[in-house]
Amino acid sequence: MREQVPTPAESLKDRARAALGQRNLVLVGLMGVGKSSIGRPVAQQLGIPFVDSDAEIERVSRMTITELFAAYGELEFRALETRVIKRLLQDGPRVVSTGGGAFIDESTRQQVKRGSLSVWLKADLDLLWNRVNRHDERPLLKTENPKQTLENLMNERYPIYQEADLAVLSRDVGKDIMVREVLAAIVEGKTAENKMP
Ligand SMILES: Nc1ncnc2c1ncn2[C@@H]1O[C@H](COP(=O)(O)OP(=O)(O)O)[C@@H](O)[C@H]1O
Ligand SMILES: O=C(O)C1=C[C@@H](OP(=O)(O)O)[C@@H](O)[C@H](O)C1
Ligand SMILES: [Mg+2]
């Protein structure tokens, strides 16, 4: 009988799954970079469950993220986010797409660092702006100059996202290509030196 040679696509996802082991895969990065959209197909490829922390927060609170910010403010939102993410990380392995501020919160970041593989999806300002500009759902960008606010958040947060285990540059290419790049990063274990574009 002929030996079955795996196709390159199969071997990439199989190798990524093996490299992940029992850890969760946690996607971090700024608003609009693609964490929520990429997370589910990455999980499908890996054959493990997917959850988006914002969607879970909305489910348990029965409020939208916008309503939560308006009713309770950012600090309360962060406290809820920390509790929800702590729970989501408990029964891994799964893929968790986080909200952009989650990994910036010290307590959430420490939780992620215990027993998860974190991937920073990063992008330049124009790409992020083009994407978030079309939507009206991000309370932190309801300012006089939202593009400037986004740039300020980049400056504040990029040194912290840098602490993630891996980094993948998000580009305006098909989501399937981004999914492959995340799988490849897991296999290659890209470290701090090659994080910057
Ligand atoms: N690779 C991609 N190419 C083009 N558009 C994308 C890509 N990834 C995400 N998007 C779009 O960008 C917007 C923000 O993506 P989203 O997944 O919500 O980002 P995040 O969860 O990081 O804030 C959405 O409208 C989404 O469809
Ligand atoms: O960057 C942030 O602080 C936030 C990002 C949002 O998630 P996305 O990054 O998925 O847009 C959401 O959690 C909330 O609006 C706050
Ligand atoms: Mg999201």
TrEMBL record:
<keyword id="KW-0067">ATP-binding</keyword>
<dbReference type="GO" id="GO:0009073">
    <property type="term" value="P:aromatic amino acid family biosynthetic process"/>
</dbReference>
<comment type="subunit">
    <text>Monomer.</text>
</comment>
<dbReference type="GO" id="GO:0000287">
    <property type="term" value="F:magnesium ion binding"/>
</dbReference>
<keyword id="KW-0963">Cytoplasm</keyword>
<dbReference type="GO" id="GO:0005829">
    <property type="term" value="C:cytosol"/>
</dbReference>
<feature type="binding site">
    <location>
        <position position="157"/>
    </location>
    <ligand>
        <name>substrate</name>
    </ligand>
</feature>
<dbReference type="InterPro" id="IPR031322">
    <property type="entry name" value="Shikimate/glucono_kinase"/>
</dbReference>
<protein>
    <recommendedName>
        <fullName>Shikimate kinase</fullName>
        <ecNumber>2.7.1.71</ecNumber>
    </recommendedName>
</protein>
<keyword id="KW-0479">Metal-binding</keyword>
<feature type="binding site">
    <location>
        <begin position="32"/>
        <end position="37"/>
    </location>
    <ligand>
        <name>ATP</name>
    </ligand>
</feature>
<keyword id="KW-0808">Transferase</keyword>
<feature type="binding site">
    <location>
        <position position="54"/>
    </location>
    <ligand>
        <name>substrate</name>
    </ligand>
</feature>
<feature type="binding site">
    <location>
        <position position="78"/>
    </location>
    <ligand>
        <name>substrate</name>
    </ligand>
</feature>
<feature type="binding site">
    <location>
        <position position="36"/>
    </location>
    <ligand>
        <name>Mg(2+)</name>
    </ligand>
</feature>
<dbReference type="GO" id="GO:0005524">
    <property type="term" value="F:ATP binding"/>
</dbReference>
<dbReference type="GO" id="GO:0004765">
    <property type="term" value="F:shikimate kinase activity"/>
</dbReference>
<dbReference type="GO" id="GO:0008652">
    <property type="term" value="P:amino acid biosynthetic process"/>
</dbReference>
<keyword id="KW-0057">Aromatic amino acid biosynthesis</keyword>
<keyword id="KW-0460">Magnesium</keyword>
<dbReference type="InterPro" id="IPR023000">
    <property type="entry name" value="Shikimate_kinase_CS"/>
</dbReference>
<dbReference type="GO" id="GO:0009423">
    <property type="term" value="P:chorismate biosynthetic process"/>
</dbReference>
<dbReference type="InterPro" id="IPR000623">
    <property type="entry name" value="Shikimate_kinase/TSH1"/>
</dbReference>
<feature type="binding site">
    <location>
        <position position="138"/>
    </location>
    <ligand>
        <name>ATP</name>
    </ligand>
</feature>
<feature type="binding site">
    <location>
        <position position="100"/>
    </location>
    <ligand>
        <name>substrate</name>
    </ligand>
</feature>
<comment type="similarity">
    <text>Belongs to the shikimate kinase family.</text>
</comment>
<keyword id="KW-0418">Kinase</keyword>
<keyword id="KW-0028">Amino-acid biosynthesis</keyword>
<dbReference type="Pfam" id="PF01202">
    <property type="entry name" value="SKI"/>
</dbReference>
<keyword id="KW-0547">Nucleotide-binding</keyword>
<comment type="pathway">
    <text>Metabolic intermediate biosynthesis; chorismate biosynthesis; chorismate from D-erythrose 4-phosphate and phosphoenolpyruvate: step 5/7.</text>
</comment>
<dbReference type="InterPro" id="IPR027417">
    <property type="entry name" value="P-loop_NTPase"/>
</dbReference>
<comment type="function">
    <text>Catalyzes the specific phosphorylation of the 3-hydroxyl group of shikimic acid using ATP as a cosubstrate.</text>
</comment>
